[in-house]
Amino acid sequence: MEVTPWPVLPALPDPATDAVVTSGLAAELAYALGGPFHILLPDAFTANLTAMRSVLADTGVNGFVYFAKKANKAAVFVERAAAGGAGVDVASAAELREALGHGVRGEHLMVTGPAKDHVLLRLAVTHGATVAVDSPDELDRVVALATTGRAGPARVLLRVLPESRPHSRFGLDDLELAIALKRCAEAGDAIRMDGFSFHLSGYALQPRADLAARLIGLCRTARSQGLAAGRISLGGGLPVSYTDADSWNTFLGTQNPGHYHARKTFGTGDFYPYHSPLAGAHALAALLATRPEGADRGLADLARDAGVELLVEPGRALLDRAGATVFRVQGVKDRDGYRIVTVDGTSLSLSEQWFGSEYLPDPLLVPTVPGPVPGVYPASVGAATCLESDMLTWRKIAFPHPPRPGDLLLYPNTAGYQMDSNESPFHDLPLPPKVVVDRTDRPRPRWRLDRHAA
Predict the structure, then answer these.
(1) For a tag site, which of 171, 209, 269, 435 has the least CB within 10 Å?
(2) Taking a C-beta distance cutoff of 8 angstroms, is the pair 275, 195 a contact?
(3) Which residues partner with 156 through β-bridges?
(4) What pTM was estimated for this model as a whole?
């Protein structure tokens, strides 16, 4: 076969995932489970959490980390958050119950989302969770629950509508904030108004630091009205770097419709930024060092001087290299100079595709028997469904061996949002189970099924 310069995007090295493959565990799990499955690597979660907490300590910032549970449904990450002294950000009654059931203390829960239902609010108030209030009527419902219940004061943050996103459906505008502050003051001991929260899309540091500085000022205003107002939630906004800078820039500069099945087109703006010069804990450190507009010091200094605790709610960044997804090749078809591989699952288990985008890190081909002479064998990857659009990888991946039925495809670093955000038992296909690999530094890694309540 003629060698063609197909674009590649190698994932950053991950010895833990490599150990699952080289030990033979991935092949045995594929045989035992009889379908696609997800590998969970909780030691990576713990390492990421430790790094972020170290940044807060090193900068002298009073801070707290919440794991945004929506990024992955697995119980093991909630268990690791609880064991590591972190909190969990939840947005439904089921998520709240899961977090409590796996060891997270009520006061370490952050409840977010719009127009929260009565059951969720009641559980939050009962267990002392912090509620990020999104509207005046939601605040009224929290006050009513706190007034009529027997729990202590309801803890709330007021979610602020960013000036840069005036049409967002989330958050309180200036008039609503004034009404909410007045209502909190009037509620007396029924409410503890702990501060403010916000959420910004994207990963730019300056807008996040600017808005945080504004909220520090709002804390001072709220304190003048007799409210506690000593905490600010910065939301998530910490990126993951999946590949190196040279690979990412080369990929963006060379990829074109001819590199995709059916000449599928993607604009470079359609892709997640798979390389970031500052990611995870390094991005958090850079944010804390950023000087807000009009300030003479960095964000960390402003927060310390104001006595404000900074809350961080990363999901994806805590899950960097904390898992992978494995499919078995079910069939292979030749098509116009490349192959179409069909696997035993669906693209619903790689959520990026269902946002009109593509999960770009190259999957690893794991042959079940020794392959022929290495070469370049381009192939796209489709799902075992009847939908034309159900493609796990539209791009023609330059595999080093020809994919064959029975081989495995391992998609790296999928724990953050990819695994289960959009999973569905379409065609009555079972959802891929999650396999927890607790130790990869042993000759034979140990594993168990995750304890998430189905």
Answers:
(1) 269
(2) no
(3) 131, 193
(4) 0.95
